[in-house]
Amino acid sequence: MKKISFLLVAIFLILSLAACGSNNGNNSSNSGNSGNAANDSSSDSSNTGSNNAASGKEVVIKFPSYKTGNNVGAIFFLPQIERFNKKFAGKYKIEIEEIVQDEYSKKIKLLYQQKKLPPLIEVDKELADIMINNGDLADLKPYIDNSPEIKDVLIDDSVKYNTDKNGKIISLPLAFERPIGMYYNKELLQKAGLTGFSDTWDGFFSDLDKLKAAGVTPLSLMTGENGWTTMLLASAMIASDPEGQQILTKGDIVTNFNSPLWINTFTKVQKLLQDYTTKSALGATYSIAANEFFSENTAAIANGPWMVGDFGNTDKVAEGFADKVGATIYPGGVALGSADGYWYSIPTGTPQEEIDGLIEYFKFIYSPEELNAFLVAEGGFAPKMPMPEESKAKLNPIMRQLNDEVGAKMKTLNRLIYDIVPQSVSDLFAKNLPLLATNDMTPEQFCKAMTDTAEKFKK
């Protein structure tokens, strides 16, 4: 009997240990894949994370980002993540999954369908509308209200845009604006007797004629991809017209382009494509348009401040190229850019300890040191946090000139055309630009095609 009792006790202990080992294994597995269960607040990953927080273990927050590899945004973003991890070592650690920019939006939409969203995402308007309607984005308002270091620097218009009809803040509002203007080659302009571009559109076209007469191709334009550099100039023209200014300021979706405002604008765009750009512009992607400027084949290109870093990158340009580059805004005191748009969002069901870590990350990136460092590196300004003189002294000379132009000349900061049209119209715009360039489509036909497509959006 003693032997039987001993055996029964031993078997009981073995089974108990096996059960404990099995539970630990399950928790460990889920904790390593917490992002994949972010939409299920009752998931094991959430419970494990809570145990980690209670036990004082480091909370690991994993999410994908396109600001990696050769993406220009990686230059500042990845070292900033390292600085955050160093500051919060032992408490929070952010781990980045690399993804190319063109695939990011598709990836997030797929993960949403699979209910496997990571704890931090960037959403476009289309996905944001769906997630807001389904209640799938966490409300950041209570956290922002309790974090003056975030709340005090946010742009009011961005807060308004990121607040849904129920008063929830569903995406981190912006604390900075990054005006989009133009960059020009000072040496090429000098060949035409110019030191910069005119402040009026009539004068601007006259400057283009002078460049052309001096044997200089004026502009880097593109009709491939989304027609970005061409679209920027069209947006600036719209913004310079009082009617267009009103449309851009209001921000409502436009579905009718059969008016003199739009037809006249695309008549000018057609002239730019036919008379003032390279042969490569027909079908050109952004990389081709940019390379024409980098190679000094064109005198100017429209783009945002994120491009400035490339001017000193000797993998793309010749040594000393940056010294030749000047920056300006568009005729009429127009700069492009807007506080509209979504940025960082947290899906509902994300474990609380990961949300807490991300709020600390938001505080970190909006701290004076980090925000100023970002603006020095990538350009722009924070309306509610003036840049100190020591930071201004660190500005790239091209960035400083752009900031000075904004301060001295800017009358309006305006949305882009792509901000006020349906996605289908944006796609058609780029698709039809080559036809406009080759005279296979008139400006009137170009506008009618956009209107017809927009009418389908209304239905």
Total strands: 10
Shape: globular
Question: What is the terminal-to-terminal distance?
Answer: 84 Å
Radius of gyration: 26 Å
Biggest sheet overview: 4 strands, mixed
Oligomer: single chain
Summarize the helix and strand pattern as letters. Answer: HHEHEHEHHHHEHHEHHHHEEEEHHHHEHH
Structural class by sheet pairing and helices:
alpha/beta
- The strand order across the widest sheet is 5-6-4-7
Treating each run of at least 4 consecutive H or I residues as one helix, how many helices? 20
As residue ranges, the low-confidence spans are: 1-51
Q: What percentage of the residues does DSSP assign to strands (E)?
A: 5-15%
The share of residues in helices is 40-55%
Question: Average pLDDT, to the nearest integer?
Answer: 86
Furnish the topology, listing elements before pairings.
Layout: H1 2-31, H2 44-55, E1 59-65, H3 74-87, E2 92-98, H4 101-113, E3 121-122, H5 125-133, H6 141-145, H7 148-151, H8 156-161, E4 181-185, H9 186-191, H10 201-213, E5 217-219, H11 228-240, H12 242-250, H13 260-275, H14 286-294, E6 298-303, E7 325-328, E8 334-336, E9 344-345, H15 352-365, H16 368-378, H17 389-392, H18 397-409, E10 412-414, H19 423-437, H20 443-458
Parallel strand pairs: 1-2, 5-6, 8-10
Antiparallel strand pairs: 3-9, 4-6, 4-7
